[in-house]
Design goal:
This is Macroglobulin domain-containing protein. The protein has 795 residues and is mainly beta. 13% of the residues lie in helices and 41% in strands. The longest helix is centred in the N-terminal third of the chain and has 19 residues, at 2-20.
Length: 795
């Protein structure tokens, strides 16, 4: 027995030693590879027709849906959601949009009750909402209510600066050289503040001086000492100053400093103030590992040399791990992407008259000139003191801002500008904004699969929760039905999981309909609630008030007049082209028996109808109650269990109540005389009644049924613009005050990479901006801007 114990202890010790000596780098790479293969990273980019609106106008938008790792069009989720959020994080407009061939398009109306201010357009899928809410697309827009006084908050005269400090690698460590990045922002405008400043010690002695490089961002270097109180003083150009304390200093740990040597190499210096043996460096670009190396610490110091050519384009992540495989430092670096597509917009001329025909060409090609088939969205709008030319380009978002926390001021600067100052500014941006889309904790400690809702791959999914009616606790394994009353009978079944969730997939579900949810027959012990498909979490980005003043009153009045004229004269042409619900097929397809009651003798009692000319249904009484059975026709024997009884597609469990219903209100009757599988439900036949208007004809549903009006996918609305192709149209006296001349969310170039567009100018003179965003099937994307002017009338 003693020998057995000794051998067991030795085996346990050898197992622990073997585990401790397991190679860390391969394990980390395998964990990341597993995570990358299991978790689809989605990105949505939203091109809005412009960024300044009046309440009462409409936002037109196009969604680009891509794989977040390789930026190619993706075909996983079939539904996207769009919110317009006010300053209190409340949604003032929302839409569910179908994603077809990796693109979605739609519009939202801005109610005239909206207050003036900065709003956030947010877009996401259910998968984004389920896996990480930080993945959501966000874009600021300005909305002004021209029917009220300009009710923007008064900007205080006092300073409203936000100063933040970010140690390189994530920590300040006692006695280790450190670089600290800073960010000084005016909270009133959201813009960076140019500044200079100093790091002061306990005796107010100056330890380091600094100045911002661009957009209020910069760095300074020093060696921290624990126990010393440091503060950083910032001074703006007007001499106003604020101070902030340094972040806490760790007594022990690691530091990580990354330097661009200028010869295409990044030098990574790692230091520790504690006994350290081996450290590991993992570098990945959107979870594709490019660098994996280990170094033995010599004198508590290690040096890594990383060729920038090894890193992918865009933002890469450098993470330092200790000997146990624990992440201890991290740093972002970037390679500016090379252009993979060129977009050329060529209007027929630079200057047009009012009500003139604009014909322009669009050419998509590779950098070598080869034509590219691409799909694009095009917007043409007036540029003035209200609407600027600034706009988020698809490349700026996919390469940069989608992977960084917080809002990025002028993202196009970082990708388009080059030189020492631009390189320093980009490095400062990465030091101060942090990684957005990735956390090592998710890789090393993945969540269980049942904690994540799968993507909406087949269409819109309605989620509900079944709870115990008495305790409110989630109820599992409860069969539940969802019905959509109407001419086309749509019925779905589900069974609650261990969290009480039920999931109903509703493909091609457009428009607003009533939904009816019920559990099984006679069930009064459970309650079903529909879950909100939109995210209820507010955005973490603080949106400042729009920078408007009295000088905009005149153009604002002109814009308001134009909006009212357009709504008055052209609103009739802007009605939505809704999808008509003409599909009258049933979920059970062709029934085995179908009866149109008007072709038979009309009885006033439903029992007589079923008994006289519906052979597939047997009617009898049992203990004073009606019992219906469906004949199992292949075997010429009735089923022993209750069939599914429907009225306009809604399950009815009380047979006596349906038998008391007037047959004069029933138009037709279908009978399925076979066993039918509906999701989780095994149905011994179906009896389906349809009223004349498919509206239940006053039938009172089960009191435990949940009935609610529910908005499905948004029906397609066409953008309207008048034509002046004929002399009569040109002479029309209807005023045309459009400042949005053209919006087309889906323009495709042909195999020669070309497309032609045509539209007419309005009665509004001025300068107009043409904005084109485009993507190819293999993941090339680009943005193009062009201007035209409208002056005078045709002679």
């Amino acid at each position: 027995m003693k020998n057995a114990i000794r051998w067991s202890c030795l085996l346990l010790l050898l197992t622990q030693v073997s585990y401790a000596q397991q190679p860390v780098l391969p394990w980390l790479q395998q964990q990341l590879e597993t995570y990358r293969n299991q978790v689809v990273q989605e990105k949505l980019f939203v091109h809005t027709d412009r960024s300044f609106y009046l309440s009462g106008e409409r936002i037109w938008f196009r969604m680009y849906y891509v794989d977040g790792m390789v930026h190619r069009p993706l075909d996983v989720s079939k539904v996207a959601y769009l919110d317009v959020l006010d300053k209190d994080q409340k949604a003032v407009a929302q839409a569910k949009v179908a994603l077809d061939s990796s693109r979605g398009m739609g519009s939202v109306y801005l109610p005239t009750s909206l207050l003036s201010g900065t709003y956030t357009v947010r877009a996401y899928t259910q998968w984004m909402k389920s896996t990480s809410r930080e993945f959501l697309f966000e874009k600021p827009i300005t909305i002004v209510n021209s029917f009220r006084r300009l009710d923007l908050p008064l900007l205080p005269d006092s300073l409203a600066y936000d100063a933040q400090l970010f140690p390189e690698g994530g920590h300040l460590v006692n006695g280790l050289p450190a670089k600290v990045a800073f960010k000084l922002v005016d909270t009133k405008t959201g813009r960076g503040i140019d500044c200079r400043g100093a790091l002061l010690g306990a005796a107010n002695d100056t330890l380091a001086r600094f100045s911002s490089v661009k957009f209020g961002l910069g760095t300074f270097a020093f060696t921290p000492s624990i126990g010393t109180r440091y503060r950083v003083v910032f001074v703006d150009r007007k001499g106003h100053s604020i101070s902030r304390p340094l972040p806490a200093i760790d007594e022990t740990g690691y530091s990580m400093q990354v330097t661009d040597t200028g010869d295409g190499t990044l030098q990574v210096i790692v230091q520790a103030n504690q006994a350290a043996a081996t450290v590991y460096l993992i570098g990945h670009t959107r979870q594709v590992v490019n660098v994996a190396e280990g170094q033995t610490m010599a004198g508590n110091k290690a040096l890594f040399s990383v060729p920038k050519s090894k890193l992918g384009e865009g933002i890469s992540h450098l993470t330092l791990f200790d000997a146990a495989g624990k992440p201890v430092c991290e740093r972002l670096v970037a390679r500016r992407p090379q252009a993979s597509m060129t977009l050329q917009v060529t209007p027929g001329k630079d200057r047009y008259a009012t009500r003139d025909n604009v014909v322009m060409g669009l050419t998509a090609s590779s950098p070598t000139g080869s034509p590219l088939p691409a799909n694009a969205s095009v917007s043409v709008y007036k540029v003035d003191s209200l609407q600027s030319e600034e706009g988020l380009a698809i490349g700026d978002y996919l390469w940069l801002t989608s992977d960084l926390r917080g809002s990025v001021e002028s993202p196009q600067y970082y990708l388009n500008q080059t030189g020492p100052e631009a390189d320093a500014a980009l490095d400062n941006l990465l030091l101060t904004h942090g990684w957005r889309r990735f956390r090592w904790d998710d890789v090393l400690n993945p969540r269980p699969a049942d904690a994540v809702q799968p993507p909406e791959h087949k269409g819109h999914v309605v989620l509900g929760r079944v709870t115990d009616a008495g305790t409110g606790a989630p109820a599992r394994d409860v069969p539940t039905f969802l019905a959509i009353p109407g001419r086309s009978i749509r019925l779905y079944s589900s069974r609650s999981d261990n969290r009480g969730l039920v999931r109903f997939e509703l493909p091609e579900f457009y428009g607003t309909h009533d939904l009816v949810l019920q559990t099984s027959a006679g069930d009064s012990l459970h309650r079903v609630d529909i879950l909100n498909p939109y995210t209820e979490t507010g955005t973490s980005t603080v949106m400042p008030a729009p920078d408007l003043n009295k000088t905009v009153n005149e153009p604002l009045q002109a814009r308001s007049l134009a909006m009212q004229v357009q709504n008055s004269y052209f609103n009739a042409y802007a009605n939505p082209a809704l999808r008509s619900d003409t599909d009258s097929s049933m979920f059970y397809n062709k029934p085995d028996e179908r009866y149109y009651l008007d072709t038979y003798t009309r009885f006033t009692v439903l029992e007589e109808v079923l008994s006289e000319y519906v052979p597939g249904v047997l009617v009898r009484r049992q203990n004073g109650h009606f019992v219906l059975r469906v004949s199992n026709m292949p075997y010429r024997m009735p089923f022993n269990d209750d069939p599914l009884i429907l009225l306009d597609g809604v399950p009815v469990y009380d047979v006596d109540r349906i038998m008391a219903f007037s047959p004069l209100k029933i138009k037709s009757l279908d009978v399925v005389t076979r066993r039918y599988m509906l999701g989780y439900a095994n149905l011994p036949g179906i009896i389906s009644f349809k009223t004349y208007k498919a509206d239940l004809a006053g039938f009172q549903l089960d009191p435990h049924a949940v009935v609610l009006e529910y908005e499905g996918l948004q029906a397609r609305r066409e953008f309207y613009a008048p034509s002046y192709a004929t002399p009569g149209q040109l002479a029309s006296r209807l005023p045309d005050f459009r400042n949005l001349l053209y919006w087309n969310p889906s323009v495709s170039t042909n195999q020669q990479g070309k497309a032609n567009l045509s539209f007419y100018t309005s009665d509004q003179e001025g300068r107009y901006l043409i904005v084109v965003q485009a993507i190819t099937p293999d993941g090339r994307f680009a943005t193009s801007h062009q201007t035209i002017s409208v002056q005078g009338a045709l002679k």
